[in-house]
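Side project, low priority. Logging it here so it doesn't get lost.
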Amino acid sequence: MNYTDFISSNGYICTESEFEIAKAHAKNKLAVIISRFGDANGERLEDYYLEQLIREELRAERVSKALFEMQLAGKEKSRIA
């Protein structure tokens, strides 16, 4: 799966670098899932499963970044006061 295929099939907006990072994390996560729980009769080997993991990674990264920025903003406010 490449960036263009992901964007066209999901309509999910992200940069190509965000996609590549999320894809690498999703592939690692998928390998762990399969090693622990199996491939569910091939179900976890389907493209849609990896796409779902990529979307989850993108959301998690965005939430993490937003929370980090909020934390920094809070520290800046406390320095000013």
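Brief comment: Residues 47-80 form the longest helix (34 residues).
Revisit when time allows.
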